[in-house]
């Protein structure tokens, strides 16, 4: 403690003897002592109490000088705390980048520092703010829907992220992470900003943490946000896979015009299967749906009708409400579709073929981008 308070006491004795306030050099010594106290883990209360106790030995106590030296001690202490916090945040950001990209340099050792046990099963939720030009319930129409980046996320998801870089701030991430840590503990959650989106890593068995994360996203983001939820996977590679699944679910939701704000990759597994054989899905869309190009007004209203009927489990009245038209109009359109394509949603086998073709059309952005 003498090492920490020596400059403080010398400044007080000098002030008591000469009547002059502490100069810049003396105050800098006090700031350095405060920073050293923070680095050694001494509490700010303990530091101030020691400084006041030492001042009792100085007669008379120069109170203006005491106020300045104690203020300098606390300033140095607080600056050291802020610097340590910035270093910790930088290390956390670097760790999250390495974790989500699968870079394995001392990953397990660094994960232990942040409370993660990477041998366990983890799930990743990805939250994206509202994107200008992409309205909830409407399909995104950007770029090649089947393209992927080297990191494995779809091009639509990456384009979306680029649009929202200013939408998720470190302050928002910190606020949500602090709320989750308060409830679940620092060893159970990790929240960070990645590619313009908010990422939450949590143990696979702690599903309530993902629900809480979504609750805070709903409060922090404007309407139009989406959360993509990857599947639980084990190990560092599993975290990468779950992250890519969550980001991919958001991209699929935009392209398919899905209305749900929370999308689970487990519920969308059929779409990557379709996209793995692009030639087959292009052939299906062309064979089944190209006759709709002959319809007056184009294929758009008929495709919308099929989507509404499928989303309503075949209930034409509910589909009409979704579309804002009469039930008679829906019935007429379905008959028109049957005559043009030869497929009817009333037949179970044909319904499956039609629904798959319609989903494929959304994935391929047909007919705006016909197979070529």
Automatic annotation (TrEMBL):
Residues 134-156 are annotated as: Disordered. Residues 142-156 have a biased composition (Low complexity). Residues 302-358 form the PucR C-terminal helix-turn-helix domain. Residues 104-249 form the CdaR GGDEF-like domain. It holds the Pfam family HTH_30. InterPro entries: CdaR-like_regulators, CdaR_GGDEF, PucR_C-HTH_dom, PucR_C-HTH_sf. It comes from the Bacteria. Belongs to the CdaR family. This is Helix-turn-helix domain-containing protein. It comes from Streptosporangium longisporum. The lineage of its organism: Bacteria, Bacillati, Actinomycetota, Actinomycetes, Streptosporangiales.
């Amino acid at each position: 403690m003498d090492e920490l308070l020596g400059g403080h006491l010398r400044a007080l004795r000098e002030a008591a003897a000469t009547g002059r306030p502490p100069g810049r050099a003396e105050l800098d010594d006090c700031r350095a002592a405060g920073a050293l106290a923070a680095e050694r883990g001494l509490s700010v209360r303990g530091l101030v109490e020691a400084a006041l106790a030492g001042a009792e030995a100085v007669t008379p106590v120069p109170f203006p000088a005491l106020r300045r030296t104690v203020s300098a001690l606390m300033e140095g202490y607080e600056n050291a705390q802020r610097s340590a916090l910035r270093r910790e945040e930088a290390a956390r950001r670097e760790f999250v980048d390495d974790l989500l990209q699968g870079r394995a340099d001392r990953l397990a050792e660094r994960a232990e520092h942040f409370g993660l046990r990477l041998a366990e099963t983890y799930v990743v939720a990805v939250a994206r703010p509202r994107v200008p030009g992409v309205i909830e319930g409407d399909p995104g129409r950007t770029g090649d829907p089947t393209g992927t980046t080297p990191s494995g996320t779809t091009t639509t998801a990456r384009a979306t992220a680029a649009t929202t870089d200013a939408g998720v701030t470190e302050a928002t991430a910190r606020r949500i992470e602090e709320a989750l840590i308060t409830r679940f503990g620092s060893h159970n959650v990790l929240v960070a900003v990645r590619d313009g989106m908010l990422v939450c890593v949590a143990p696979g068995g702690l599903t309530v943490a993902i629900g809480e994360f979504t609750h805070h996203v709903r409060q922090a983001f404007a309407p139009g946000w989406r959360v993509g939820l990857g599947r639980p996977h084990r190990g560092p590679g599993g975290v990468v896979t779950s992250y890519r699944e969550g980001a991919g679910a958001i991209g699929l939701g935009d392209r398919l015009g899905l209305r749900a704000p929370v999308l689970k990759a487990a519920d969308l597994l059929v779409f990557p299967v379709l996209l793995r054989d692009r030639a087959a899905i292009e052939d299906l869309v062309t064979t089944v749906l190209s006759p709709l190009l002959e319809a007056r007004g184009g294929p758009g209203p008929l495709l919308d009708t099929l989507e509404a009927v499928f989303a309503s489990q075949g209930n034409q009245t509910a589909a009409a409400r979704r579309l804002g038209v009469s039930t008679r109009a829906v019935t007429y359109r379905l008959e028109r579709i049957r005559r043009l394509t030869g497929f009817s949603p009333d037949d179970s086998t044909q319904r499956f073929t039609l629904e798959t073709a319609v989903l494929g059309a959304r994935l391929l952005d047909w007919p705006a981008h016909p197979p070529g």
